[in-house]
Amino acid sequence: MAKQKTNNGNAANLGFEAELFKAADKLRGNMEPSDYKHVALGLIFLKYISDAFEARHAELLAEDLQAAEDKDEYLADNIFWVPKEGRWSHLKANAKRPEIGTLIDDAMRAIEKDNESLKGVLPKDYARPALNKVMLGELIDLISGIAMNEGGDKSKDVLGRVYEYFLSQFAGAEGKRGGEFYTPRSVVRVLVEMLEPYQGRVYDPCCGSGGMFVQSEKFVLEHGGRIGDIAIYGQESNYTTWRLAKMNLAVRGIDSDIRWNNEGSFHKDELRDLRFDHILANPPFNISDWGGDRLREDPRWQFGVPPVGNANYAWLQHIYWHLAPFGTAGVVLANGSMSSNQSGEGEIRKAMVEADAVDCMVALPGQLFYSTQIPACLWFLARDKSNGKRGSLSKNGETLRDRRGEVLFIDARNMGTLVDRTRRELSDADIQKIADTYHAWRGEQEAGEYTDIPGFCKSATLDEIRKHGHVLTPGRYVGAAEQEDDDEPFEEKMQRLSAQWREQQQEAARLDAAIEANLGELGYGE
């Protein structure tokens, strides 16, 4: 993915978001990250919509005084209408007053009242007695400095980056609970770079805080496309997380149709009749209480009825059901999904492979996720592997090669670098290598020729997969990495290694004798 251009303003400073988060986290005091998350993110969101409104308001004032007070002028530019009591300047001026919590709640209510799409989305409990009002005032002062020297789209981009960074840091601070709504950015980028969602409908049936959509939009922009070329759809069963997603997308200026109900995508599929060109999803792993016993006759289970005790194959089939005729999907699942034979899962996997529903499998390195240490993999599904891309859904109209009867296996377990003691990230180079391999294998123009690389990738036929009992673990197919060429004759190597071993033995004996002598001097010898 192309890197974003930078300038000399605070948007470009390396670690700007990290420094800001550190400062904000200091203000948290003894407050739980799960509570503070909504306090901080709500204020960042308020700053964003207020900045966007004020910028457009100034432009309209210069053109036409009457137009500046016309709500439709703002809606036409995908900008929220912000009444006077909701504007950041009003809150900043009153940040030190003891009733600042009430003023923030009033601002949130006023904004919701004037913007139908934000109804029920914004946090409105800043006036609660337990919330430190001095901390609130200091947080307003801190956030006031974000993008202060930037204008228009630059300001929007900085606030969007800050919101995204804060989301990731809160996911880390909350551990397992926080990680449930957040898919690590590097994992999302692998999905996006491989699927290339340039145009069409993009869907996530368990969208969490909306990270899949943010990265999809970034991809389109950075590759010279137009944001209006993709339409965003999603569903989320957790109301609090749905609110985070709505704010996350609004901060980015992304128009979307994100549905919420507490029954979830299996039991109340809000978008049942829609089909999508690209689906990106990170469903909760190995969910056992998904209510599968009530869905035994569901038409989505075209490869077999998923077990009541594990939702992995329900997610895969729900996603495949929603693919358009030439649609593709990328799904994050637990490694067990590639090989499990429990409760009929092996038979479902076999049916999917034999129907050519599986396009590619990627084994990921461990420690990528905030929420779980369970090793994960990526499933790539395709409705039609005879070409997979047609006309407008391609960046340049090309079709892909016929991949029927083949599956690409990529073993990326040795990739990534540790960013702290517990978590790993895939680098830009790692992501590019994985995506380029897939693109070459699919036969994309300008992607180069595909070749199997021992230890990393292998294009396997259905016959080869059958021999492995339809197990889809990449390690079974890619083999071992080739060793570097070794021109040293065997006899010479044995002599060299034997001499080296004898030297090491002698050194070990010398050290043992020295230690024994020292112990003797201390009165501990034999």
Automatic annotation (TrEMBL):
Listed EC numbers: 2.1.1.72
Matching SUPFAM superfamilies: S-adenosyl-L-methionine-dependent methyltransferases
Catalytic reactions of this protein: a 2'-deoxyadenosine in DNA + S-adenosyl-L-methionine = an N(6)-methyl-2'-deoxyadenosine in DNA + S-adenosyl-L-homocysteine + H(+)
Record keywords, A-Z: Methyltransferase, Restriction system, S-adenosyl-L-methionine, Transferase
InterPro entries reported for this sequence: D12N6_MeTrfase_N, DNA_methylase_A-5, DNA_methylase_N6_adenine_CS, SAM-dependent_MTases_sf, T1MK-like_N_sf, Type-I_RE_MTase_Subunit
Highest taxon listed in the record's lineage: Bacteria
Entry keyword annotation includes Calcium: no
Family, similarity comment: Belongs to the N(4)/N(6)-methyltransferase family.
Name listed for the protein in its UniProt record: site-specific DNA-methyltransferase (adenine-specific)
